[in-house]
Amino acid sequence: MYPSRFSYDAPTSVEEVIAILDQNGGEAKVLAGGQSLIPMLKLRFASPARVVDINGIPGLEYHRVDPDGTLRIGALCRHEDLEFSKILGNFPTLSQASSLVADPIVRTRGTFVGSLCHADPQGDWSATMIALGGKIIAQGPNGRREIKARDFVLGPFVNALAFNEVAVEAIVPPAKGKALGGYLKLERRVGDFATASVAVALDVDGDIVTRAGCALAGVGGRTIDANDAISVLVGKSLNSESIKEAAEAVAAAAEPRTDHRGSSSYKRHIVETFVTRILSNIANSEQKAA
Amino acid sequence: MAPLDELKIGGMGASRRRVEDNRFIRGKGRYVDDIVLPGMLHVEILRSPVAHARIKSIDTSAAWEVPGVRLVMTGETMAARNLAWMPTLSYDTQAVLATDKVRFQGQEVAAVVADNPYIARDALDKIVVEYEQLPVIVNPIQAQSPDAPLIRDDKENQTSNKIFDWEIGDKEATDRAFAQADVVSKIDLHYPRSHPSPLETCGSIADYDRSSGKLTVYMTSQAPHIVRAAVAMVAELPEHMIRIISPDLGGGFGNKVPIYPGYVISILASILTERPVKWVEDKSSNLISTGFGRDVYLEGELALRKDGKILGMRMHTISDHGAFFADAQPTKFKIGLMHSTFACYDIPTGHLVSEGYYTNKAPGGVAYRCSFRVTEAMFFQERMMHAAANDLGMDQAEFRRVNLVRDDMFPYRTAFGFLTDSGQYEKCLDVGLEAIGYSTFKQEQEEARKRGKLLGIGISTMTEPLGAGNSREYDIIGIKMFDSAELRVHMTGKAILRTGAKTQGQGHETTWAQIVAHELGIPADDIVVEEGDTDTAPFGMGTYASRSTPVAGAAVAMASRKIRAKARKIAAHLLEVSEEDIEWELGRFYVRGNQERGVTIQDCALAAYSNVPDGLEPGLENTSYYDPPNLTWPFAAYFCKVEVDAQTGVWDVLNFVAVDDCGVRINPMIVEGQVMGGLTEAYAMANMQYMTFDEEGNCIGANYMDYLIPTSWETPGFELHEVVTPCPHHPIGAKGVGECATVAGPAAFVNAVMSAIEHTGVRNVDMPLMPNRVYQALQTGQDVSGMPPVLSD
Which of B555, B545, B559 is nearest to B475 (CA)? Predict the structure, then answer.
């Protein structure tokens, strides 16, 4: 690989990172897992003047669940940390997605927060976070701020961070009641970009849905926020009628384009099929549990 | 004295561990890119961003200004040395650096030589090329249009985009067969373009020494001797002053047979700078510009009697060769060995017509893990067989059984003139049917359908011609296709073996030593195998078309036998008896009637250098050139069971049974590895691995995000079985095997998916069988044909 010339910094604190970003006025890129940035450098799609490697900053590898049930994921938490995590029992959507992100090689190195920042319309984690109502903590010269996941992705490969901010943590709020959900992805091969992916996250009280979240990847120029569409489930129980209504509403929210992975109508059909499958799986396993 | 145990010394039939893996798995392989010569410069190549355009101007002045740049080359630089064009292996010409037009996206336009590749890459960005765009042709249908722009306006007498018309067979007899047919079954297919994509890309280091006049080139070549001959002709250097060294190769699959512009550029750059010059292409350059495989439209029909007997066949192929006819193939056969189609079936007559066209796509048409277009031939054959059985209302296995050449019919002359010589086709069929559970499948399929599940089973059976020559019929640009081996046994009984083949993953270092061990009883571990250096290896045609074991492997056996004949004379001398009184057992000569009295091959080796009888030359070495009397004809019978998800079109392989008869197996483990690797590539063809182009000629597949190669995570498991019918003419009874699975495999997968969905009325879905295409066929009951379109609404 022969990227353009860049200078390289390996700071050991978040404050130093912010100072470097601030001094370079948008010409610096943060390197975490490197699974997207390195290929972009290699192909010269990205030619930043500086690369700021945050892997030397201690204390960012964590993911933990707070006593109130909030999940916190640090900037250097790798995909596989989540894939093999023992503490995600209350986060089924995220847990299911974790083994479908890219391929096992990428998962050993790539980071959750880095993937969110990359803002790829086909990214699994953006869809998961939007469905879960998650947030990103950005830190800049003026301190920290929270950005909702649904506001974080502005467009393809564009996120809401200012040039002198770095994403230090992702947060998933605790479910109200029982957390149920699922993640399905159609890909031509492990590691291929998704033809279509569906993330569904529900909070359920008894058998009544109290909150419904959904987002889609691969079926639009950005991650599709289908939270409004799936909110038809709120106040209802899962049955064939409500599942059908939700699946149709979510499919209508997709904005797929025809390409060599399939026609727009095929992709929309896959979204509807996957929403149906996820919700039916939930309904079936809840029935068995009850 | 107990005889040697052949398996213990790593002889024939031993699943000996691959000796080359010892260095590969330790990262100690030595590939072209690992080699660093003193004072070495680096070349990077500027490629055309457009598929068809006239070059109005090239401004290289800014590139020359970049510090560290030593040389900037354009078509003009090459033309000054008469190197702007080079010959291809199919008697065409190919541009080295474009002078007049660019004819495909990714074509070589200019090159920068610099102190390191970063500088060279930076300087490429400073070259300004002005293009005047021309209409683009991306398939042979467009190429045939009377309004089509002429791609090869550089060639005199080339007035259209057609490259060749070729035919074989008996048209009149075939017409008569069709007139008598009860049923005529037709099929119309496209075998999509794919790329061999070896892990290691192509590259070279040219080192021209002006003081000695010697040119040494380290090169990623499957056929270094052909390259030496070609360089001698193109570069006007005397052949003895050219040394081509092909070091460890990270895969080839046919991609490293042709001669590429980058090689020629590095050679001229070294001559001009008087420094070693390294060229190593990146993955995108390899995918976008080097030898592709397939890209053929195949249509044809069978004349059938009601009882299932095939009376005749017709076939018509239209192939897309890209901008230059750079296929690597035997001179006589314009579309390779396409006429080997239906070779395993007893069919009285047939007629094949082939046309080839230029398009604005990368050149190639290489034999991607196959013997010169055999993959396309057998894919057509087995998809045609599947459709014909359905048209007759006959069981797939039974229809094949009725038509397979029977054991008692060998040697069998096919309708297109090949001579198949051995096999147990029906036995292979039966072994596979039993293993896949064929007898209960129909019921299983019915029951599954009631539960909303779509099951399918696919069969593919074939024999293929492997191991070109003989040299009467097979040559490449006039160079006859035989091969060679040179064996030197040292004083202590250890040995070095060199052949004219070139391993690139096949494991020659392991298996050649096993042949010597079998013939001489020298333990395989005592034999080192070396290939790829034209200064030391005997002349050979290299490794492709599964020709190594059939040809070079035979030469290894023959060279060993010559050594044994000389050792026998020495043994007689040592044992003080006449040669006629000497008997041979593995590794040892003894006196007839007194087995205790003997000498080992090692004793003979020592004597060859210390105690030879009068009148015998000292030393124990020999070279053998082997020209096989015929091709070898392995047989493959593959059986695939799938389940199709009706809601998504996704299909999963439930079971895959492969029965291979490749004659005597030298190293069963390596044979199994070859079959599994080939089946993985077959699965890839059927499912995902294709390269397409949009209307402007942009290549969709120039990186591993668009060009999908399966990984271990989705590749199914394979159940392997063997039947052994020795090759009657090969010294050790072996046949080629490296390519059987890639050749016969794709039809097994496709037939299986079709079997699961054809109740809807659909007859064909062209590869790749991506979920959206299968779903479309299920929904509409209509065929899905051609390449997946590159659409955006």
Answer: B545
| Closest residue of chain A to B648, computed from CA coordinates | A270
| Residue A257 burial by Cβ neighbours in a 10 Å radius (0-12, 13-18, 19+) | middle
B121: contact with A, CB 8 A cutoff: yes
Q: Least CB-CB distance to A258: which of B44, B648, B793?
A: B793
Is residue B690 predicted with pLDDT exceeding 80?
A: yes
**CATH code reported for the domain at A63-172:** 3.30.465.10
Cα separation of B541 and B501, whole Å? 6
Q: Given this model, what pLDDT does residue A289 score?
A: 77
Find the range with the poorest average confidence among A78-87, A122-131, B224-233, B433-442.
B224-233
CA angle B762, B768, B769 (to 5 degrees): 45
B715 touches A at CB < 8 Å: no
Contact B686, B769 (CB under 8 A): yes
How far apart CA B59 and CA B76 sit, in angstroms, is 12
User: Residue ranges of the alpha helices (H) in B31-81?
Assistant: 61-65, 75-80
Domain boundaries, chain A: 7-53, 63-172, 178-289
pLDDT reading at B792 higher than 60: no
Could you tell me the end-to-end alpha-carbon distance of chain A, in angstroms, rounded to an integer? Answer: 56
Kindly state the tokens that stand for B1: 């004295």
Give the nearest partner residue to B793 out of A192, A264, A270, using CB atoms: A264
Rounded to whole angstroms, the Cα distance separating B733 from B747 reads: 28
- Going by pLDDT thresholds of 50, 70 and 90, the confidence category of residue A198 is very high
Q: Which residues contact B576 (CB under 8 A, 6 or more apart)?
A: none
Q: Do B714 and A189 touch (CB under 8 A)?
A: yes
In this structure, which amino acid lies at residue B467? Answer: G
Partner-chain contact A257 B705, CB within 8 Å? no
Each residue's pLDDT tens digit, B209-236: 999 999 999 999 999 999 998 888 877 7
Neighbouring C-beta atoms of residue A158, cutoff 10 Å: 10
Q: Do A4 and B122 touch (CB under 8 A)?
A: yes
Tokens found for residue B345: 């079936």
**High-pLDDT (> 90) share of chain B, %:** 93
Give every CB contact of residue B268 below 8 A, 6+ residues apart in sequence: B73, B77, B78, B81, B83
Level-2 CATH architecture, domain B483-626: 2-Layer Sandwich (3.30)
CA–CA separation, B24 and A6 (whole Å): 33
Residue B341 has pLDDT above 80, yes or no: yes
Do the chains contact at A43 and B790, CB–CB below 8 Å? no
Q: Which option is the CATH number for A178-289: 1.10.10.10, 3.40.190.10, 3.30.460.10, 3.30.390.50?
A: 3.30.390.50
Q: What distance in Å separates residue B584's CA from the closest CA in chain A?
A: 55
Chain B residues near residue A260 by CB distance under 8 angstroms: 692, 700, 788-791
Report which of A180, A194, A202 is spatially closest to residue A270, judged by C-alpha positions: A194
Q: Please compute the mean of the pLDDT values over residues B752-780 and round it to a whole number.
A: 97
pLDDT recorded at residue B346 = 98
For residue B614, what pLDDT is reported? 93
- Judged against a pLDDT cut of 70, whether residue B1 lies above it is answered with no
The complex's ipTM works out to 0.95
- The C-alpha of B788 sits at a distance from chain A's nearest C-alpha, in angstroms, of 6
Per CB-CB distance under 8 Å, the chain A contacts of B282 are 1-2
Fold classification of A7-53 (topology level): 3.30.43
Amino acid, single-letter form, for residue B511: T
* CATH number assigned to the domain covering B293-468+630-780: 3.30.365.10
pLDDT tens digits for A41-99?
Answer: 998 899 999 999 999 999 999 999 999 999 999 999 999 999 999 999 999 999 999 99
Tokens of B746: 């794709």
Using a CB-CB distance cutoff of 8 angstroms, which residues of chain B are in contact with residue A2? 44, 117-118, 121, 282
Does residue B613 carry a pLDDT above 80?
A: yes
